[in-house]
Specification:
Elements (H helix, E strand, L loop, with lengths): L1 H4 L2 H53 L6 H7 L4 E6 L7 E3 L5 H9 L14 E8 L7 E10 L9 E7 L1 H51 L14 H36 L3 E6 L4 E4 L1 H14 L9 H13 L3 E7 L2 E12 L2 E11 L1 H36 L6 H33 L7 E4 H10 L2 H7 L2 E6 L6 E4 L1 H17 L6 E9 L2 E8 L6 H4 L11 H4 L8 H11 L3 E7 L3 E9 L4
Keywords: ATP-binding, Cell membrane, Kinase, Membrane, Nucleotide-binding, Phosphoprotein, Transferase, Transmembrane, Transmembrane helix, Two-component regulatory system
Main location: membrane
Subcellular location: Cell membrane
Length: 592
């Protein structure tokens, strides 16, 4: 029932019913009033005519034989009383009960007394006993008309009729009106539901279509069944669905494009809300946030370094863009904060973080490289210059001294040559321009040969040099044997130089499936943990005092690292300070 009252059908039906009921009510009231007045006037006119007729008959004939004529003159349900003198009833015609009481009340009515003395006709409604029931009173219309008007005192004819006739007429009229109203209500209900159904059926279809659009089904279409306003509404609804689908596709494409751009960016992008919570972040930003959370040991996903929070406060408060380069957790970032607007107000901010750590590291390496090259070249150049000037000035007193100076000049020139050669080789390796001449070699034999060539040097220093292998003898690899020998030379030579007398240098080969693992282990001084990650950098020396006088250009490990990587292998260093160092590299084996 509630569904009907809340629908357009119910509301339209109730509205039409109320309108028709109101109209019928007004029409009924006016019609009953009109019929009552009309019936009263008709009855009064009829009674007046009948009274005049009876008066003429009685004046002309004046005997009781005329009473039969008077009876014919009277209308149905009309009675008459004739009084020739006041208070005396001469003749009467009465059909029904309570005739005597009615006659007495009519004749004795004070308003009718003036009719006996004038030619005036008096009409009055009176409450008299009923004609059909003994103990009931009902309304009558009574008309008194004079007789023999030429005399000063004359008689009067009284004609009276019960108003039940009018009541019955009004009741029949009312019944007819109510029957008509009932039929009108039925017809109104039928046509209201018919009309409203024709209106609401397409509206219900559009409502269902709107629900489908709300669910995301933008292919929904409403059937256009007419050319009126509802049909035009259905056409507009279908156009709206098509436009929504088009705009949503455009938005999705832009969203996917923006998501792809953010995902593919190397820089970290973080979007903040007004309350400083993170709304959006791309994968580099998520990785960076996870690193900060791990280092801080917190579980708050919105936790940020204090430097960034200060910048975010500044942007949200002053609504201006800010750009700075900061060091956060040992890394360098170029950070750009920009406010996000919603109309005139700031709804948040976006931060773009560019990791500058590698650039800082490369800049430091460049500066260190220039400083190291200058340092490495300064000493031999100074010695060359000094001893050359001594020879030119003939400072040497004996041939032996001059030969010693010449030998020093030669050794320093050789050292400068090795440094330049190593720099060129390293540059070629890092640029990828050095060509490798790979050949299929037996891995164990090659590594053992490269190791044993240092046996004599180890014996002279009192160091035990050994070689072991767990690799099968038939295992082979495609290598540039000269380059791998250069790697082994650098690693074993470093081990021998930094291992004290009585120490050990052990070369061990292991099988790691499709790779061979080579370890050069020594029992030397070792490398500190903070220096371990930089050992493969150019010119890097963990302890300048410790390495002083032990030769080397500081480029050997950098060259070794590049050679191993050029062979699709890996190299690393493990060390405990004061216990020894292990250099480990892997090389791919050739499947036989």
């Amino acid at each position: 029932m509630n569904r009907i009252w809340n629908s357009i059908v119910g509301k339209l039906w109730v509205t039409i019913l109320l309108l028709v009921s109101f109209v019928l009510f007004i029409v009924t009231v006016l019609l009953l009033e009109f019929l009552g007045n009309f019936h009263s006037e008709t009855v009064e006119e009829a009674l007046h005519n009948e009274a005049n007729m009876i008066a003429r008959i009685f004046n002309d004939h004046g005997n009781e034989d005329n009473l039969s004529i008077v009876d014919e003159v009277l209308g149905p349900e009309t009675n008459a009383v004739i009084a020739e003198e006041p208070g005396e009833i001469s003749y009467y015609l009465h059909d029904g009960l309570n005739g005597e009481e009615i006659r007495e009340k009519i004749v004795s009515e004070n308003e009718f007394q003036k009719v006996f003395e004038s030619d005036e006709t008096v009409t009055k409604e009176m409450l008299l006993p009923s004609l059909s029931e003994a103990d009931r009173m009902e309304s009558y219309i009574v008309m008194a008309s004079p007789l023999q008007t030429s005399d000063e005192l004359h008689g009067t004819v009284f004609i009276y009729q019960s108003l039940e006739v009018m009541d019955r007429t009004a009741e029949r009229t009312t019944n007819i009106v109510f029957l008509s109203a009932f039929i009108a209500l039925l017809l109104t209900t039928f046509f209201a539901f018919f009309l409203s159904t024709r209106i609401t059926s397409p509206l219900r279809n559009m409502r269902e279509g709107a629900f489908e659009l709300a669910k995301g089904n933008f292919d929904t279409k409403v059937k256009v069944s007419s050319g009126d306003e509802i049909g035009q509404l259905a056409i507009a609804f279908n156009q709206m669905g098509r436009q929504l689908k088009h705009h949503l596709e455009v938005i999705n494409q832009e969203k996917e494009q923006l998501s792809s751009i953010l995902t593919s960016m190397a820089d970290a992008v973080i979007t903040f809300n007004q309350d400083k919570t993170i709304l959006l972040s791309n994968p580099p930003a998520e990785k960076l946030l996870q690193q900060w959370l791990f280092k801080d040991g917190t579980t708050d996903a919105n936790a940020l370094p204090s430097e960034m929070l200060h910048m975010l406060d500044h942007v949200l408060t002053f609504q201006e863009e800010i750009e700075e380069e900061l060091e956060i957790e040992g890394a360098y970032y170029a950070i750009n904060f920009s406010p996000l607007y919603s109309g005139e107000s700031v709804r948040g901010a976006v931060a773009v973080l560019h990791n500058m750590t590698e650039q800082h590291r490369l800049e430091k390496l460049r500066e260190d490289f220039i400083a190291n090259v200058s340092h490495e070249l300064r000493t031999p150049i100074a010695m060359l210059q000094g001893y050359s000037e001594a020879l030119l000035d003939d400072v040497g007193a004996s041939e032996e001294e001059r030969n010693e100076m010449t030998k020093i000049i030669y050794e320093e020139s050789q050292r400068m040559g090795r440094l330049v050669t190593d720099l060129l080789n390293l540059a070629r390796l890092e640029s990828g321009h050095m060509r490798l001449y790979k050949e299929l070699v037996q891995f164990n034999n090659a590594i053992e040969r490269m190791t044993l060539k240092f046996s004599q040097a180890a014996k002279e220093k009192g160091i035990e040099l050994s070689f072991t292998t767990e690799l099968d003898d038939w295992a082979a690899a495609e290598l540039d044997e000269d380059r791998i020998e250069q790697v082994m030379t650098n690693l074993i030579d470093n081990a021998l130089r930094h291992t004290p007398q009585g120490g050990q240098v052990h070369v061990h080969v292991e099988n790691m499936g499709d790779h061979a693992k080579v370890s050069i282990n020594d029992t030397g001084a070792g490398i500190t943990e903070k220096d371990l990650e930089f050992v493969f950098e150019r010119f890097y020396k963990a302890d300048k005092a410790r390495t002083l006088g032990k030769g080397g250009t500081g480029l050997g490990l950098a060259i070794a690292s590049n050679i191993i990587k050029a062979h699709s292998g890996e190299i690393r260093a493990e060390s405990k300070f004061g216990e020894g160092t292990s250099f480990i590299f892997t090389l791919p084996l050739k499947a036989m």
